[in-house]
Amino acid sequence: MEMQLYGKITCNFVEKALAKNKEEYAKILDTYNQVQGQGDGIKSFTGILLYLMLDYYCTFLIDEPESFLHPPQANIMGRIIGETLKAQQQAFISTHSEEIIKGLLSVCPERIKIIRITRDGDINSFSILDNDKFGEVWSDPLLKYSNIMTSLFHKTVILCESDSDCKIYSIIENNLQQSAGKYSETLFIHSGGKHRMAKIATALRVLDIEVKLIPDIDVLNDENVFRGIVEAFGIEWKTVSGDYKILVSNLHSPKEAINRNDFKTTVNRILDASNNQNLFQRELKDIEEATRTLSKWATIKKSGISAITRGDATAAFNRMDQILKEHGIYVVPVGELECFIKEVGGHGPEWANKVLETYPDLNCVVYNSIKEFINGLGL
Question: Is the pLDDT score of 2 beyond 50?
Fold first, then answer.
């Protein structure tokens, strides 16, 4: 009897304790906003999260988890999915959001495999980019925080060297499409310089994205960089190497190097011309000029193919340029973007902004040469 009485007392105590805890817990819950009172995005967000927390399921099929979410929230959603999925679980996610992909890659890049589905008529085709190949791009900080992920959702991607290049070329391309009564389906992204172009092009081409490249003409100045780009676009190096060597061998400047004796003579002449203890500004400029070398590539970048030596060099470039265009590489014929509109001085973003401020009408004749070049890309 004593044991039974003790048991009843204990049970009553536990029940009262639990009831009290439930009341306290309910009071805490009352301080939070209820899910049913939130927007559709948060409702969907919560529903997915609750399912992911269940150990009972090992495979999840998630369709458009970014629905009704703002981009920052979509990024958080991607992170939470990546952090919540256990090692024995996997998820198949259908998405049109680069932020979902970025969120996933930020927390579990080693588990990600991207499959791009493209539809031509009634036929779907699939391209796979595993994490090993994409890791090469994602490990580069400048590319990791760029808009390269957006390229997965565009028909064509144009790869440029800098952001200002993308800005002007994309504005012109959009204007040309509008003039033709079409909509642009092209994304312009920059690589942050020539050295990353091959890496990005390789990753995008694996996904069967149509990639075109617009490099400045001085990309030819570095054989290793140029060869990497050529091979990234599926061109065998031997196909263009002969013409490349002919071109480079004909590009010589009268002052590519500084002769030690000549430099010594020049400096001594400047020093002996005055007994003043300090060098004059004019003398410093003369010494600086004596240390300056002249590169034929610098001239070509400012003048384009017109500065290439006539004869074998020009013929070699034309043959090589034809092969490059057939595979999607379009070397800027005037050297660099700024040389299309020489009426405006400067370089980079400052130049691009000044051009648009000076010539706001895109139908102005000043844009004709750029339009001709962009039209040649066959977009």
Answer: no
Task: Out of 19-33, 87-101, 148-162, 225-239, pick the least confident.
Answer: 19-33
Average pLDDT over residues 293-305: 76
Asked if 156 and 299 sit in the same domain, the reply is yes
Task: Write down the residue that tokens 């065998």 correspond to.
Answer: 236
The pLDDT of residue 294 is above 70:
no
Would residue 126 count as lying in a domain? Answer: no
Q: Please report the sign of the dihedral spanned by the C-alpha atoms of residue 237, residue 238, residue 242, residue 243.
A: negative
Give the per-residue SS3 of the chain: CHHHHHHHHHHHHHHHHHHHHHHHHHHHHHCCCCHHHCCHHHHHHHHHHHHHCCCCCCEEEEECCCCCCCHHHHHHHHHHHHHHCCCCCEEEEECCCHHHHHHHHHHCHHHCCEEEEEEECCEEEEEEECHHHHHHHHCCHHHHCCCHHHHHHCCEEEEECCHHHHHHHHHHHHHHHHHCCCCCCEEEEECCCHHHHHHHHHHHHHCCCEEEEECCHHHHHCHHHHHHHHHHCCCCHHHHHHHHHHHHHCCCCCCCCCCHHHHHHHHHHHHHCCCCCCCCHHHHHHHHHHHCCCCHHHHHHHHHHHHCCCCHHHHHHHHHHHHHHHCCECCCCCCCHHHHCCCCCCCHHHHHHHHHHHCCCCCCHHHHHHHHHHHCCCC
Q: What percent of the chain has pLDDT over 90?
A: 32
What's the confidence (pLDDT) of residue 1? Answer: 42
CA gyration radius, the chain:
31
243 within domain boundaries = yes
40 belongs to a structural domain: no
When pLDDT is averaged across residues 254-270 and rounded to a whole number, the result is: 68
Domain extent at residue 11: 2-32
Domain count, the chain: 2
Say if residues 148 and 189 touch (Cβ distance below 8 Å). Answer: yes
Which phi and psi angles does 253 have, rounded to 5°? Answer: -110, 150
Establish if 84 belongs to a structural domain. Answer: no
Of the two residues 4 and 313, the one the predictor is more confident about is 313
Same-domain pairing of 26 and 143: no
Task: Check residues 103 and 285 and name the one with the higher pLDDT.
Answer: 103
- The mean pLDDT of 347-376, rounded to a whole number, is 93
